[in-house]
Design a protein that fits this description.
The chain is mainly alpha-helical and 326 residues long. It has 14 helices and four strands.
Length: 326
């Protein structure tokens, strides 16, 4: 073998496949395969073996990650939608809410500027890295080596959507019905105080996420503020995307067993992150059902809050319109 042959750089076939998938001009599987000099069948097979993800799925995910980063840096929803390959803003909004747990408009208000806040869970280490690059996190992980939990994603997204729906109904109540004592002496958790009215229960639904996010970030105790409907709705709009991002980051990093020291407790206590998320989701589900009982007592018609109904009827999970990428 000649010295010239020995000195040639080793061909990175997987990187070539990734480049073909993410080329701006390759918007369908046939074009991706052509860019990699392979048939669509062989291209899909090679790509799946190397990444644990189909070419189309990876392209859509990375394009959504790029759109999230753009939205957080001031790009408009329409430009982000068409830049990500969607043929309509509505279709983009549905796909984005399904992936992130909140609408694109919420990203512009709350997105962190760190380089990884927009990353979605993936079965490999391939992510969008600003401004226009790929990030291979610890190299490309072998297929199947990931921590993604669809169950957790469904629980978190349903909790947020359901809470928003209940807040919407509560906004229609007059002050008397909103503050009426429905269950005298009711205490869900002793440190949260009595929850005898619709307003008090909804207040703790929002407050729980605010206080735990502050604990995770090592921040000061947030201002609890009022629990009138409009104040709660504003606070929920601010905390909901941050909570979804925090849980998604825990899942992406496989950090469920990591511990946080909650300095907001007296004395400070140590909690496992997986336990914190389970705690929030458990008592959120309980409180949402309490609010339903109270709303019915106030003469309002409400559904059962069943995640199965939500999954089939929610706009976030409805099929979107045609896209420019398959």
């Amino acid at each position: 073998m000649s010295e010239t042959r020995l000195s040639e750089p080793r061909r990175d076939r997987l990187r070539e496949l990734l480049d073909a998938v993410l080329d701006e001009n390759n918007v369908n599987l046939e074009q991706m395969a052509q860019g990699a000099y392979a048939s669509p069948w062989h291209f899909t097979r090679q790509f799946g073996v190397g990444t644990g993800e189909s070419p189309v799925a990876l392209r859509r995910r990375v394009m959504l990650e790029r759109a999230a980063w753009q939205l957080g840096n001031g790009v408009g929803v329409t430009d982000a939608a068409f830049g990500a390959g969607y043929s309509s803003v509505e279709g983009f909004g549905r796909a984005y809410a399904r992936a992130y747990g909140y609408p694109p408009s919420a990203t512009a208000r709350t997105s962190s500027q760190n380089g990884r806040a927009h990353w979605l869970a993936a079965p490999n280490g391939v992510h969008f890295h600003p401004p226009m690059n790929l990030w291979l996190e610890d190299g490309i992980a072998p297929a199947g080596r990931h921590f993604r939990s669809e169950v957790v994603a469904h629980l978190v997204h349903h909790d947020l959507d359901d809470t928003r729906a209940l807040l919407d109904i509560a906004r229609e109540l007059d002050d008397t019905e909103y503050e009426r004592c429905r269950f005298p002496g009711l205490v869900v958790l002793e440190w949260d105080g009595p929850e005898e009215s619709i307003g008090r229960v909804l207040g703790n639904l929002v407050w729980t996420k605010e206080i735990w996010l502050a604990s995770m970030a090592g921040g000061d105790q947030p201002d609890r503020g009022g629990h009138d409907p409009e104040s709660l709705f504003r606070r929920f709009d601010e905390v909901a995307p941050r909570w979804a991002d925090a849980v998604r980051d825990i899942d992406r990093r496989g950090a469920w067993g990591d511990r946080l020291i909650d300095a907001l407790c007296e004395p400070p206590q140590s909690f496992v992150l997986g336990g914190v998320v389970a705690h929030v989701l458990t008592f959120s589900a309980h409180r949402r059902q309490l609010v339903r009982h109270m709303l019915r007592a106030a003469g309002r018609s409400v559904d059962h809050g069943d995640p199965l109904d939500w999954h089939f009827s929610s706009a976030a999970f409805a099929p979107g319109p045609e896209r420019t990428t398959p």
